[in-house]
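Appendix B. One record, verbatim.
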Amino acid sequence: MRIVASVALTLVLAWSGPAFAQPRPAGFPDVIGALKATPGCLGVETAHTPGGKRVIFAWFESKKALVDWYHGDVHQKAMKTAFPDLRFDRQPLPDLAEDSGPILAIVSVKFIDAPMPNTTAGIASIGIELYGPLPGGVAVGGRFAPEALKVRGLREIPLGMVQGQSR
């Protein structure tokens, strides 16, 4: 649980972008920028839900790419900044096969005003969910997942082919 919480918090605290006017905490690394530059990270998106959750969508080409990110300098610094009194000595994703294919990591965090014990930020909830692409689907005029993510059976239809046509 501590690993899940640390990954979620470090990812969510660190992003910056137009969707979030709140600046990154002082001394906290630019995790979103680092994710985007990480080998094996296919793409990153951020969002803010109406219910107040901040969400990161990060696509990795493989388990190895995600585990390498976890062990990388930026992520390790972010974990230590967010949870200075905790040790993280568990190997991440021990139950996931090495050849599991692409992984979408969805990290959601809801903040509160007062910090929880052993953290530097107030957190109401943290969730990290991992998903893999299923065959099929349709994308009209574009898609949410990065182009580098190949999805077997995905129908990609240019928007011009459907505009003006009756349904």
